[in-house]
Design goal:
The complex is a heterodimer.
Chain A: H1 3-36, H2 39-42, H3 45-50, E1 54-55, E2 62-63, H4 66-97, H5 100-114, H6 118-136, H7 145-169, H8 173-181, H9 186-197, H10 199-215, H11 218-223, H12 241-249, H13 257-289
Antiparallel strand pairs in A: 1-2
Chain B: E1 10-21, E2 24-35, E3 39-43, H1 50-56, E4 67-75, E5 78-79, H2 87-93, E6 94-97, H3 108-118, H4 124-137, H5 141-144, H6 157-169, E7 175-179, H7 187-200, E8 205-209, H8 213-219, E9 222-227, E10 230-236, H9 237-242, H10 247-253
Parallel strand pairs in B: 3-8, 3-9, 6-7, 7-8
Antiparallel strand pairs in B: 1-2, 1-4, 4-5, 9-10
Helix pairs in contact in B: 3-4, 3-6, 4-6, 6-7
Classes of the chains: A mainly alpha, B alpha/beta.
């Protein structure tokens, strides 16, 4: 066998492997859309997305998923508010301040946290955090937005922290030296040079952390409370989209309107996470090309 | 108490300095006086310790883990390695220009005002005046006066290095340390920076590390030749390049070794 044929075969093998995963993903997306389409014959897109009532098993049923979307968005938002400062600050500590010994310990621990099964976190939220919340704040239930947001933030922190840390680590040593040589302190160098230079990476980290939170199923299924209603306070229960799909899919007759409605929810979720990823991509590219001079 | 000492006519005095990276001794018993408002060149083969000495003079070596200094370095009569001295204050008075141009990924304007803003200078007019003054000093003003808001990273290498010099000058330092400032530049940019060094020495003391013998001969008043972490010969540049005291110096300068 000549060298060029060998090269060609290797190239073809890699192409097939790469194409397989793309094709499979594409087929999943297609079947997702195909199963979702029938629901829009029953309810218009507007009624489906902005309808306030999710009563898929009533007679007549109503398929408004707005409370589910609100539930997803609010737990994502709250968990982001908690996870971003902790994730970013811990990344700054690990990459710039911790001594090498502490760094060697902290970095793997945070990465290990990312591998924690979500059902474990959900279980913790159910049996430890929920009773505590219920008792401390005298609530009807401890399974609510606060509980779900805290658990989701625990999932988002490792993502945000380790991606931010990579971005901070990638800031060239020359920038830091330039800053110190001008009489800047360590704190000034971090705030005015290192963080701005890593901002595109940190933004990507934040958005990927949010994408992780919005798509997370098990935690919200276990601790968000499951009430498909628009919440009045942070201590109300909600029913985020993934929880709804997971909880209801098992009891839904195949091919029924309810079944198709769940696929409709999945499509909405698909577009939301897609949007998060596109924004992350956009931010990363935007600052890369202009040398982040606008910062 | 910070111990004080007078060294007539010199701004920096290095006394019996040993320097270690971990257990490796990079500098041995360096003893050197740097004249005020003069250009001093440090020459020698790679790894001879000349850059280490330069970075010692504004305590940049503090930033590297596992380094240790023995001996004393006096700056205007004060021992800068005294525990009571804050290295941050030293670096404000002793500026540095690096081998590779390293502007911040910010606009040209913000590169210059970075240091002054840290010292609490916030008046817009003062900052504008400072930007114009330092860019004129570094002979960059005409090329960039209309694009001050543009990213410094879009400038050419030579322009970036002059920007870095302007940025250092904006702190109004007493001493300017230059670590092979032209080694990454083309001949035209190099010539511009050498001219600049010549003009700057009326107001500043300049210490420059260079691998380029002609450059040392052209720009400096005094030259120190280093080999294996030791200062072999330190003399007037004219003397070093015409009639050095030591055979070893002559061999290096004429290219017979190193």
């Amino acid at each position: 066998m000549t060298r060029t044929t060998k090269e060609k075969i290797i190239k073809a093998v890699f192409f097939v492997i790469a194409a397989t995963s793309v094709i499979i993903l594409g087929m999943i997306v297609i079947s997702l859309f195909r199963e979702a389409v029938p629901i829009f014959r029953v309810a218009s897109i507007k009624d489906f997305i902005f309808g306030n009532e999710w009563y898929p098993t009533y007679d007549p049923p109503s398929f408004g998923i707005w409370p589910l979307i609100v539930g997803s968005l609010i737990v994502t938002l709250c968990s982001t508010v908690i996870a971003v400062p902790i994730g970013v600050l811990s990344a700054i500590y690990i990459s710039e301040l911790a001594n090498p010994f502490l760094k060697e310990i902290l970095k793997p621990i945070i990465e290990l946290l990312a591998g924690l099964p979500s059902v474990v976190l959900g279980f913790f939220g159910m049996v430890v955090l929920a009773p505590w919340l219920q008792e401390t704040f005298d609530l009807p239930t401890g399974l609510n937005i606060v509980n779900a947001s805290l658990m989701l933030s625990l999932m988002a922190i490792p993502t945000i922290s380790s991606i931010s840390e990579d971005a901070l680590y990638a800031v060239p040593q020359e920038f830091k030296e330039a800053s110190y040589a001008l009489g800047a302190t360590k704190y000034e160098t971090i705030v005015r040079v290192i963080v701005p230079a890593a901002l595109s990476g940190i933004s990507t980290a934040v958005i990927l952390g949010m994408a992780r939170a919005i798509g997370e199923t098990m935690v919200v299924l276990m601790v968000a409370g499951g009430a498909a209603a628009i919440p009045d306070s942070l201590f109300d229960s909600v029913r985020p989209m993934p929880a709804s799909i997971a909880a209801e899919m098992g009891e839904t007759p195949f091919g029924s309107n309810h079944y198709h409605a769940l696929f409709g929810i999945a499509v909405v979720l698909f577009f939301l996470t897609l949007a998060f990823n596109l924004v992350a991509d956009y931010i990363a590219n935007k600052y890369k090309q202009t040398g982040s001079a606008t910062l | 108490m910070v111990d004080k000492l007078n060294h007539d006519g010199s701004i920096i005095a290095v006394e019996h300095v040993n320097f270690f990276y971990g257990t490796f001794k990079a500098l041995t018993d360096i003893h050197m006086l740097f004249k005020k408002n003069a250009v001093t060149a440090l020459i020698g083969p790679s790894g001879c310790g000349k850059s280490t000495l330069l970075r010692l003079l504004n305590r940049m070596n503090d930033l590297i883990d596992g380094t240790r200094v023995e001996g004393r370095v006096y700056f205007e009569g004060l021992n800068m390695y005294d525990p009571n001295i804050d290295p941050v204050e030293i670096r404000k008075k002793i500026g540095m220009v690096f081998q590779k141009p390293n502007p911040f990924p910010k606009s040209i304007y913000n590169n210059i005002v970075y240091g002054p803003k840290l010292t609490g200078m916030n008046n817009k007019n003062d900052l504008n005046a400072l930007v114009e003054k330092t860019l004129k000093q570094s002979v960059l003003w005409d090329e960039v006066k209309d694009i001050l808001d543009q990213s410094a990273l879009r400038l050419s290498g030579g322009q970036q290095q002059r920007l870095c010099i302007a940025r250092a000058l904006a702190m109004n330092p007493d001493v300017l340390l230059m670590d092979e400032p032209t080694s990454a530049l083309d001949p035209i940019s190099t010539a511009k920076i050498e001219e600049l060094i010549d003009e700057l020495k009326t107001d500043y003391t300049i210490i420059i590390v260079t691998h380029n013998m002609q450059q040392a001969a052209r720009v400096s008043d005094e030259t120190g030749f280093f080999y294996l972490g030791k200062l072999i010969e330190y003399n007037e540049t004219k003397k070093i390049f015409t009639k050095p005291d030591l055979k070893q110096t002559e061999d290096y300068i004429t290219g017979r070794f190193g």
